[in-house]
Amino acid sequence: MTALTDIKDLELQRILNAFLIAGVQVYQEVKMGNGLDVTAASNASGDSQLNLDILADTYFQDAIASSTQVRYIVSEERPNLVTYGNGDYSVSLDPLDGSKSAAVGIPPGAIFGIFKDVEQISDFNGKHIVMGGFFVFGITPEIYFSLHGTATTGVWDASTNSWTFRALPAMPAKKMVAINASNRTKWNPWLQDYFDGLINHEDENGNSFNLRWYASMVSEIKRLLLEGGIFSYPEDKRTGYEEGHLRLVYEAIPMAYLLAAVGGNSSNGDTSILALQTTELHQKTPVFLGEAALITEMEKAKKGFGLGV
What we know:
8-stranded mixed β-sheet; single chain
């Protein structure tokens, strides 16, 4: 894809254009440092909200509602499914991912998915998704997404107020693991063992896996796409984290769909994220994303402990 007009389905073209408009609007707020104060409210998942979270949600929902016939929108910032139009497509949104990290200068972004023929919550799954991706609000806005299995990236040029797109290449390979190792003692034993093997084992060239952690999913997945490796956000023993922390519908599935388009894979530890059943709007799941070989290796490590399916 080199331009929006390359998308032949006009409604998909309108939805993506609405995303692009809202993405630039949110980027401008981030650039100015607006809305980084914590509100007294929390979102549907129980996370504390910044004013910027609420503002980003409004920008995306207003752009979508004013220019498309989207049927439903599910957002991290709203408790219920929102009905808008009668079109074939429905949208999932994490309108500002990594907002708390933005307060210390780590780029936040937004995650989005487009699903076709959604009639109920269970239809927000890997079989119905047709587009999944994310924005990164760094030096300039960037977008990474897959539409019908074709991966594209784009960058916004402020001087021309326009986006330039290009094909996203296959994900490379690198000895890198992105995980919050501060929670290591709370992980399940199989994951502790697998992680220790990555970090402490040197190959024939004396290289082991490097550890990275931004605490901003969009920044982590951008690096994963550009460099390779594996991203992990597992379940653990903390209250509220027993099923992981990332949400299936508007974080895990869109990212898994994009990773599949560049040769990567996804898992909840047992099976592909795209094969999971959706039962709740704000359902949580453990998330592993990365090189296909590393995902397979991770699942085998869990099975080796007599766990998994």
